[in-house]
C-alpha cells in the first residue's frame, strides 16, 4: 500500500512546514519556510487553499505535474489527497490557507461552505488570477494573518471566519469571470457533451448501464463533476442534470410516436429500471403522461 502523509490538525501541518501555530483551527502558511522534501501523497483533514504567487511546477495531483503560472489558486476539501510519492526533492513555494471544519461551527459559513463547489474541483481546474485579482486575494489573506497575530479575544473567531467567507466570495466571483473569459473552450466542451449524450442514447448503453449520470459525462470529458456542473450551469442556465433530462425527454417524445412500442419498452430503452419512474418524470416535464402524450399526438 502506498504511503500517504495524513494531516489531522492545523498544528501538524504548520510543524511540517516550519510555521508557528497561532490558532489551533486556522493558519496562513508560508510554504517557503518548509525544508526541501521528497514528493509525497498528502491528505488534509481540513479545507486547504494553495496560492501560488510565483511560477513553479512543484505541485502534483494524481500522476500529473502542473506547471502553475503566478497567481493560481487550488482548492481542496477535507479528506482529499494530492501529490504522488517519488524520490525527487523540491522546495515548496507559495502560501496555503488552511482551516478546520470545527472553526466554522455555529457560523453562517458552516451552512454556506457546501455552496463553494470549487473545493471539489480537480487541481487541473485551478483558478488563474489577474494582477488585480491577486491583489484582492493577498489583501484577504493579510487580514486573516492580522487576526492571527492579534491576541485572541471574543471578536477573533467572527472576524477570521468573516474574512475567510469574504475570501471565498471573491474566489467565486473570479471563477465566474474565468468561465466567461474561457467561453470558447467551454463551448467546445458543451459541443462534446452534446455529442457524447447523443451517442449514449443511440447505443445500447442505457439498457445495459441505465440512465447516465452527471459524473459519467464529467469523467468522459476529463473534468470533475462539480466543475462540469458549474460550467454547464454558467453556459446554459440549466443544471447538467436538467440538460440530460431535457435530452432524454426529447428522445422519449420521438420514441412515443412509434406506436409499435409500448411505453414500458420505451422506458427500458431509455435506461429506466422502473417504467413508473419514466412516466413520473415525463409528466413532470411535459404535463402529460407518456400515454396521454401519445393519445393527444397520434389521434
UniProtKB/TrEMBL annotation:
PANTHER family: ARAC-FAMILY TRANSCRIPTIONAL REGULATOR (PTHR43280), TRANSCRIPTIONAL REGULATORY PROTEIN (PTHR43280:SF32). GO terms for molecular function: DNA-binding transcription factor activity; sequence-specific DNA binding. Keywords: DNA-binding, Transcription, Transcription regulation. Residues 191-296 form the HTH araC/xylS-type domain. It comes from Sphingobacterium lactis. This is Helix-turn-helix domain-containing protein.
Amino acid at each position: 500500500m502506498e504511503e500517504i502523509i495524513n494531516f489531522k490538525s492545523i498544528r501538524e501541518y504548520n510543524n511540517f512546514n516550519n510555521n508557528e501555530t497561532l490558532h489551533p483551527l486556522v493558519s496562513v502558511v508560508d510554504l517557503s519556510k518548509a525544508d526541501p522534501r521528497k514528493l509525497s501523497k498528502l491528505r488534509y483533514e481540513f479545507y486547504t487553499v494553495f496560492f501560488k504567487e510565483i511560477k513553479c511546477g512543484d505541485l502534483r495531483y494524481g500522476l500529473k505535474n502542473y506547471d502553475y503560472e503566478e497567481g493560481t489558486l487550488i482548492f481542496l476539501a477535507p479528506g482529499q489527497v494530492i501529490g504522488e510519492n517519488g524520490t525527487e526533492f523540491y522546495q515548496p513555494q507559495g502560501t496555503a490557507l488552511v482551516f478546520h471544519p470545527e472553526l466554522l461551527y455555529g457560523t453562517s459559513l458552516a451552512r454556506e461552505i457546501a455552496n463553494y463547489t470549487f473545493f471539489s474541483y480537480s487541481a487541473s481546474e485551478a483558478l488563474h488570477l489577474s494582477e488585480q485579482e491577486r491583489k484582492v486575494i493577498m489583501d484577504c489573506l493579510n487580514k486573516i494573518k492580522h487576526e492571527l497575530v492579534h491576541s485572541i479575544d471574543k471578536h477573533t473567531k467572527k472576524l477570521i471566519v468573516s474574512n475567510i467567507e469574504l475570501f471565498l466570495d471573491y474566489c467565486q466571483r473570479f471563477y465566474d469571470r474565468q468561465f466567461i473569459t474561457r467561453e470558447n473552450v467551454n463551448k467546445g466542451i458543451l459541443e462534446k457533451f452534446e455529442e457524447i449524450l447523443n451517442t449514449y442514447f443511440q447505443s445500447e448503453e442505457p439498457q445495459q448501464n441505465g440512465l447516465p449520470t452527471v459524473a459519467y459525462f464529467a469523467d468522459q470529458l476529463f473534468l470533475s463533476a462539480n466543475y462540469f456542473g458549474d460550467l454547464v450551469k454558467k453556459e446554459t442556465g440549466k443544471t447538467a442534470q436538467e440538460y440530460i433530462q431535457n435530452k432524454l425527454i426529447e428522445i422519449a417524445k420521438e420514441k412515443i410516436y412509434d406506436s409499435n412500442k409500448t411505453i414500458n419498452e420505451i422506458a427500458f430503452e431509455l435506461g429506466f429500471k422502473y417504467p413508473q419512474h419514466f412516466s413520473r418524470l415525463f409528466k413532470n416535464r411535459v404535463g402529460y403522461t407518456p400515454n396521454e402524450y401519445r393519445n393527444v399526438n397520434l389521434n
